[in-house]
Amino acid sequence: MLQNIRDNSQGCLSWVIVGLISLTFAVWGVGEFGLSNNERIIAEVNGVEIPERDFIKQVNQQKNRLRSMFKNQDLDLSFMQTQIRENTLRQMIDEELLLQSATNSGMRISNGLLTARVHSFEAFKIDGNFSQVVYEQLLQRQGLNPITFEMDMRRSLLAEQIRQGITRSALVTDNEQRTILENQQRLINYIIIPSSRFTDTVIVSDEEIATNYQENSVQYMIPEQVSIEYVELSSKDIDLKDSLDEEALKQSYEERKELFTTPPKWQASHILIKVAKDATLTDTELVADKARNVLAQVEAGEKSFIELVKQFSDDIGSKDKDGNLGWVSSGDMVKPFEDAVKTMQIGEISKLVKSRFGFHIIKLNDSSPEVVQAFADVRTQIKQDLSKELAESKFYALVDNFGNVAFENPNSLEVITETMGLISKTTELFAKDDKQPEDSILSKSKVITAAFSDTVLKDSYNSEVIDIGEQRVLVLRVKEHILAKAKPIEEVKDSIKTALTQSKTKAEAKKLGQNLLEQIKQNIDPNIIAKNNDLTWLTSQVTRQDKTMQQAILQQAFKMGHPTTNKSIYQSLELDNGDFALIAVSAVKVGEKTDETITQYKQAIGESEFNQLVSGLKIDAEIKDNSKELADDS
């Protein structure tokens, strides 16, 4: 099945598959023939080149993942650009080191495992079953070489096997299991003294309220407030009028014709008789003789082309695929190879073609001519694209004028509204930290920052042009300004009384709790102590993972020591809600280790060992990082 897919595939995998692979690795095998002489190399790992185009593809995929994670937020990735690029390049270098180590150790991914993984993708299934038709269609939509996809899959699977082999083989010693993984149980008795018990008995006087008001006046302030007047400019306000006549659309079509052109493609197979990089002229001539001999056998027809591929070809990337390189376009092949393919007829076998890799004997299996979409078929798309471009161009031209007028007339927005035909708007009073509706202009942090800036608030000038996204900008000025001031005591009296009452009830609960603890230390029966105070001891046998009791009490109980025979240990605890607790640990039981806990610990050890492996490979590796030089060139 997979072989048929390889033979019939036309194109490459759709974006659906991108999310199924952690990294789309650099092309290898047939990828050798896709590297042009002008290829920019972002890094080299022990002599293996990582093309910049693959790096850029990975950077864009990382950005898309981040945007997908935060799809409901206005995410600006510009400040993360450097970090994303550095992390992506580090991951690609790490993966290449791992794969080189695995290859040198003789590790391989079998055809059976590769087939099983391809068949497991839901994107290739109909009603739960793998569909060759769907597979071919998804490949064809994007135009990548299917051979490249399968090689990427092999590399991905190999990297995955390395990681799993290390993480799953981690060992946990008996001592570590005893120390870390014991599922301990504790018998706990506890009393909770609710602070609400004292609500009706504590008294808060007017004098106390007044003192608290004076000492904590900052807490009872009305924050500084402003209201603003602003003028907004949006690309939606722009009228293109007669800018998009038919002649303009046709001219745009001609200028962008290559966007509507599907380039020609060829499906070829080849036999490669490889020439070593350090080969002498004599060595090269010997290889040429061998290539001529193979060509003679091809032309004689005594053996099929496929049989001769398997017998003589040195291209490990295509040899197991009957020499098939899949569908390729101009630029995917080295120039001599491409020049030969372009002149061939379907079914034709070439003469010897020499490239920097050696001598090729090429068979053209199929071809697809260049297809240009007609103007009528793409007119709507051109109009939409051109409208957007013209609107953006006019918008940014207007923004410059918008900012100049605001700057030249800093004490008013009237000149902007009159000269540019815009309308000013105002807001109600608001404080810097007020929560605003998402659709409000005040939900934009840049607007709030500008409104409370010295330029706007103290100098009473117009703000600078503020970009609030989605091709919308505005200029604002302060309309009304109210300084922060203290709220009248009558307005906050009730809240102060509530706070003081809570503080006093909390103190009373703590006082009673500490008194009970002292009585227990004097060997008075805890049950009698509880009964005399209308309280009840609660009993529970728990583990650290128990969810049935307050977590603060549970955590404190496991911090306490081990009780002696028939002698509980006691401790008090103030709870966050103001209540007070007494805790008694009566017994400690060492439980059995759980498989889940041991597995989690093994995984942690395995990840640490895996990271150490990668670090060790880097120490012995020759790594050349060209990212800074390429960035400077750009």
What is the element layout, followed by pairings?
Elements: H1 2-8, E1 41-45, E2 48-51, H2 52-69, H3 81-104, H4 111-120, E3 125-126, E4 129-130, H5 132-140, H6 146-167, H7 174-180, E5 185-193, H8 206-215, E6 221-222, E7 225-234, H9 246-255, E8 261-262, E9 265-274, H10 281-300, H11 305-312, H12 316-319, E10 324-329, H13 335-342, E11 353-355, E12 358-368, E13 371-372, H14 375-408, H15 414-420, E14 424-426, E15 430-431, H16 445-451, H17 454-457, E16 466-467, E17 472-482, E18 485-486, H18 489-521, H19 526-532, E19 538-543, H20 551-559, E20 569-574, E21 580-589, H21 595-620, E22 623-625, H22 627-633
Antiparallel strand pairs: 1-2, 1-22, 3-4, 5-19, 5-21, 6-18, 7-14, 7-15, 7-17, 8-13, 9-10, 9-12, 11-12, 16-17, 20-21
Q: How would you sum up this structure, described in words?
A:
The protein has 634 residues and is of the alpha+beta class. The protein folds into four domains: 2-170 and 613-633, Porin chaperone SurA, peptide-binding domain (Triger factor/SurA peptide-binding fold), CATH 1.10.4030; 185-220 and 489-589, no CATH class; 224-239 and 389-483, Chitinase A, domain 3; 264-369, Chitinase A, domain 3 (Roll), CATH 3.10.50.40. Helices cover 46% and strands 18% of the residues. It is built from 22 helices and 22 strands. Strands 7, 14, 15, 16 and 17 form a five-stranded antiparallel β-sheet that branches. A four-stranded antiparallel β-sheet has the order 19-5-21-20, sandwiched between helices. A hairpin with a 4-residue loop joins strand 16 (466-467) and strand 17. Helix 3 crosses helix 6 (146-167). The two termini are 45 Å apart. The model is unreliable at 1-37 (pLDDT under 50).
